[in-house]
Structures are given as structure tokens and as C-alpha cells.
Amino acid sequence: MRIPNRIPELVAMVWTVVMLAACSDRPAGTPTGLVERGATLQPAADIALQSLDPFTIRAPLASFHINRPPDFVIHSRETKDIVMQRSVFVPGPGGWHTHPGPTFVIVLQGLIKLTRYTANGGCEDTQVYGPGEAYFETGADVHRATVLSAEDAVLLVMRFNIPVGGAISTPASDPGC
Q: Which residues have C-beta within 8 Å of that of residue 160, sequence separation ≥ 6?
């Protein structure tokens, strides 16, 4: 009897718990959970404001297959980098670009929306996302983020399917949106 390799699942679960605990900006004693929409995150007394500084951590992840019916399947046939980031974007529109793989994002501070372009759907704006909200970017779609708040947007980002040592994003031409 073969026991399935569950290391990728365990890594994902541990990463989620560690990152949520480490990146929590709620004061001690505050209940866990999402921040109310529109609320400004306040750093805990023992965490300096530099805790919102950007960072990028990446590591190769061997091929894996996770199949948890009925609603979750993810796999990779070859080794790819997995990338964790805290990204900071200044107010206004960013540049058009693509990513090689899917991206999951949690907004920690600010207000942000995406404009996406696809050959089938044309130009499309997402809703505005605020603190405690999350969104998903598919790989290879041309898009840009626009920070709508007067303050910087701070995002916690998890990227999958990045070529080992390769580019995380690639600039794209303005599709005319």
C-alpha cells in the first residue's frame, strides 16, 4: 500500500498558519479573524512600523499533486519556485504585467483594484479590495493594480508556478483599457 506524499499540503498549511501569525498586526488579546473592511491595521506595540516593509522569499518546490474533492485540485509536474512576498504599492496605477503562475493576495493596508485584460473578455475592473480581503490572479493574464487609497497598499502575496530562478513578473504592453 502506497502512502501519498502529503509534504506539499503540510508545507502550505504550516506556511499559512506561520504567516498569518507572524504578519498579524492586531494588538495582543484581539480576537483572530479578518480585519473589518475599511479598518486600518494598527501595529502591535512590540512590532515596529518597518514590519510592513516589502520582502520576497522564494524556494524551489518539487513536483506535487493535491486532489481534495470536491473543490480543490492543484499540481505541478516539475520543480517550480514558490514565492512569498509582502508588497508595497504607492497610490495610483501600476504598470501592465503578467505572472507565470497563479497568485493569492491578502490586503493588509490600503484600497486596491485590478484591471484585467483577456482576449475573450476584454478589459474588466475588479471590485475594490480593502484590509482583510483577499483576491486571486490567474497566471498569464495581462493586468495592473491601482491603489485608490491615499496611503500605500500593503499586500501579503503567495505566488505559485514560478520558473526556478526565473522572473516573478513580466512587463506587458498597455492593452488600451
A: 74, 76, 80, 82, 101, 102, 103
CA-to-CA distance for 127 and 84, rounded, in angstroms? 24
**The CATH classification of domain 7-171, taken from the options 3.40.710.10, 2.60.120.580, 3.40.50.150, 2.60.120.10:** 2.60.120.10
Q: Tens digit of pLDDT for each residue in 33-44?
A: 334 444 444 443
Cα–Cα distance, 108 to 52 (Å, whole number):
9
Between CA 4 and CA 6 the distance in angstroms is 6
Count of CB atoms situated within 10 Å of the CB of 123: 13
CA distances in angstroms from 58 to 158, 162, 164, 166, 168, listed in the order given:
10, 9, 9, 11, 10
- Are the C-beta atoms of residues 158 and 108 closer than 8 Å to each other? no
- What's the pLDDT tens digit per position in 105-127? 999 999 999 999 988 889 999 99
Amino acid symbol at 21: A
Greatest alpha-carbon pair distance for the chain in Å reads: 58
- Alpha-carbon distance 107 to 120, whole Å? 28
